[in-house]
Write a structure and sequence with these properties.
By secondary structure, the chain is mostly helical. The protein has two domains: 2-123, Four Helix Bundle (Hemerythrin (Met), subunit A) (Up-down Bundle), CATH 1.20.120; 131-161, no CATH class. It has eight helices and two strands; from the N terminus they run H-H-H-H-H-H-E-E-H-H. The chain has helices at 2-16, 31-42, 46-55, 57-67, 74-91, 100-123, 143-147, 153-161, and strands at residues 131-134, 140-142.
Length: 162
Amino acid sequence: MISILFNALSALVSVILGVSGPQNFPPPLPPEEEKRLFALASQGDEKARASLIEHNLRLVSHIVRKYYQTCKNQDDLISIGTIGLIKAIDTFNTENGARFATYAAKCIQNEILMYFRSQKKLSSEVSIHETIDTDRDGNPLTYMDIVYSEDTITEDLDMKVN
C-alpha cells in the first residue's frame, strides 16, 4: 500500500516539477486492459491499482490545466485531483457501463470543488495577531493591540475577595 502511494506521489511530483510533461505520462489503457485491472484491483491487487492510478494521472493534469488555468496553486490542485482519482478508482463499478474517464473526471472535479469550499470557509477566519494597520511610528497594529488592556482590575478584585 505504501509503495503504491509512493509510486503515485513520485509520478505526481515529477509532473508538478515539470520533469515530465503530458507527453511523458503513461498512455491511457485500452478498455479491455482497464477492465482487467479493475477486476484485479477489486480483489486487492495493489499493483493493478497503482497501474490504474499512474495511467490516469494524465486526466488529472488535463482537468486542472483546462478548468483551473488561472489558479496560482495548480500544484495543489493536481495533488487534490489525484486524491479524487484514487477515490474514483476505489469506487468505480465496471458493470455500470460508464467509461472510467467520465466517472473519474467528475470525482476529480468534485474533490477540487470541495477544496475550494473549505478554503472559502477558512478565508473568513481572522487571527488576533493579524496586522490590520500601522501606528504613527510605522509599527504594525494588530487586533491584539486594540483589545489589550493594561488595567489590573481582575487582580484588584482577586485581592479584595481574598
